[in-house]
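ping. complex inputs:
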Amino acid sequence: MDDHLKKLENDSIYIFRQAFRSIKNVAMLWSLGKDSNVMVWIALKAFLGKIPFPLVHVDTGKKFKEMYEFREKYEKKWNINLIKRKCPPISSIDPSLPPAARSAARKTEGLKAVIRENNFKGVIAGIRRDEQGTRAKERIFSPRDEFGKWEPKNQPPEFWDQSNFNYPDSVHLRIHPLLSWTEIDIWKYIKEQKIPIVDLYFSKNGKRYRSLGDKDITFPVVSSAKNHDQIIRELQNTKVSERSGRAMDHEQEDVFEKLRTSGYM
Amino acid sequence: MTLEDVEHIPKVVVVGHIDHGKSSFIGRLMYDLDQIPDGKFEELKEVSKKRGMDFEFAFLMDALQSERDQGITIDTTQIFFRTKKRKYVFIDAPGHKEFVRNMITGASSADIAMLIVDVCEGVKEQTKKHSYLLKLLGIDNVIILYNKMDKIKNDEKRYLSVKNEMEEYLRNIGIKISNQIPISAKCGDNIVKKSSNIKWYEEKVVSEVLDEFDVDSKNVLGPLRLPVQDIYKIKDKRIIVGRIESGKVSIDDELLFLPSNETVRIDSFEEWPEPKNDYFAGESIAFTMKEQIFVDRGNLVSHSETPPKLMQTFEANIFWLTHKKLNLKGKYLLKINTGEYSVSIKNIKKIINTDNLESKSSSGIIRKNDVAEIVLHSSQLIPMDDFRDNKKTGRFCLLDEEEIIAGGIVDLSNYPDQRESSVQPNIKPVELAVKEIDRSNKFNHRSAIIWLTGLSGSGKSTIAKEVERKLFLRDFNVFVLDGDNLRMGLNKGLKFSTDDRTENIRRTAEVAKLFSQAGFIVIVSLISPYKSERKKARDIRPEIFKEIYVSASLEECSKRDVKGLYAKANKGEIKNFTGISSPYEEPDNPDLILNTEDESVEKSVKKLENFIVENFSNLKKS
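pong. complex structure:
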């Protein structure tokens, strides 16, 4: 493994262990996407083969069939304690949001519900800084208030691998072990470690998915990349952003920040 | 081969005064390196137009709505980019003085620092503050960018005068300058392309300077420092995990654990799927030991020949991040690597005015964003290094109950290693045949000293007895030392004068220590009214001592007056009665408070029982 990937892997392991040690009741989100699988893989390393906390799949019911199949297979193979939580219906979501964002917000509500029901004090999520501008401003250990709200303007200091873990009971932390990874890092690591992923990422009929969300608001990009190497090469030359196929990001200038401040990943 | 030196992606931070053009510079650099995603340029054009501005490169970094609306950077952000030579991560840190904590968050992980100065405005307050903070963050080599050259019509004289001022300041605080470049973020002068406007400047442009910058990676070479992050029990194995901060560790190594001062050999490395035989700085590792010794989270592992220092009192340079005042009487939580210690601040040596580097007027009050030299004290020995010897193990942060309030770097030049200072000459303790760890493994809990302090009648003995009973039923080895009972035997003859009370507490603490060495959880129920005496008791075995404040008001205790003592004391029949004719000093920062006035005995008992199990049972986590 190249040394850059090795450093990323080791630091992510450190974050996992720190989260497990410092937070009472932790869970990890498993969206079935590539980043999520990298997280599972690193957690297996951090805890030497068995993840000691539950994984959560917040299910919109609108994922691709391949993703559900993948879930059933690897839940067993990786010996995962999986909580499957259905999202509330669209009718219960803020109608002032643009349509795709409104659809994505179902996931926020499903997530908040699962946190409430299980009294999770920490939720591990696979977001990365290079995905999106407001995610770039995230902390590794990022507090959310009782309504799941993120306060980007008033974030706690975090330096020298030190964070605060002493919060009121109503607060939960989002933990972001992949924050420093880039999309190319993820692909190189998947290739190097032979981490299984859903086939939809590879080109079929001249198109492939770069990022996987709900069926109805995620679109494939034009690509002929049929394997890991071709994808890495494609990414080295592209200037198209990763989330360009995610409709919710592009409806309004500030829509992603709005979604995130109210609790989206 | 080491982890750091091949393909390392340097992190670059840009700091400086507000509005000197940090975000604009980064945006421009990205643009000139052709690193802006398709569509992003158009999107930002649109965003700029909407706010009635010319095209603003800064919006690339300033993604938050409020940042765009106010035109300032609020939080730190990171952006990846690449030159022909290598990849980088850019960290943009806010220059506004309200957001120093965000600047620290951003800059603390940087390999390369760029200081940006607006040549029009010259060297400002935050330019100096940021320079000083870089020094505290361990960055001692910077690149200076003199921005907005277009605004002064590329005047060399004006440039030289600002440059002189910067050079003098950085020389005084001991930061080296690697390069100085006159630029214009707006026009793209000397960023990636050599400027035809600034004709007198003939040296390298920013991207070239970055590509040639040597990123330091000497941590791999130094002595081994491995802070214990956690201990896992997987199947029958007890596995220690942690990240190597410097040096290397191999399968046959003998390791020294501090502060417990025990040495032990590695038995095996554990890794999923396959372990190796050697591990280097930067790696998160897991291992088992040949012998079972006490290992705690926060212990620092080294080789015996090259140990870190063990300190109780030490000096540090700190930056203060909160508007809360530093409290010289208060206790703070010090986090250093994976260790956590309760500390107090002994004195403030100097508060530094970063404008002129002089000591701030004698007010002695540390304010938000101040930097200062202070002396810290802990009742426990803390393993650490001087920051100049090892950056990773020579820095810490301080927290109060709510948040991180300060960060600091350790300076041990005025304080010797305190490893030996507490040992008496000529008395050598006899080594015990059955070790405490063996007892602990057998009993499935660690030994502990649970010290209940509070007024007479507050409920100490009631709670102690009940918790003893409950824990006993749960197979704990537990014993109550009650102040009244002790006075009938061991402490017979001691009265209630200050001296006698002190002796009473000392003896009780020593007995508690013996019980703890025998593997017991000993619950001490003793008024112990003086802070200083309780502290002495704690210092006998600080690592297992817990101070529990059984709290009830004097009115409530006199009302209860179970033993009829308050009535007598009020009549003057008992002298030196705590609360009436003798003082009770409340604990500042007890490990647990049991308020027996507001909550039931059952609740207090449950709380204390849980507290003990949580802290001392071996069966808590598997």
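Chain B touches chain A through 66 residues (CB under 8 Å).
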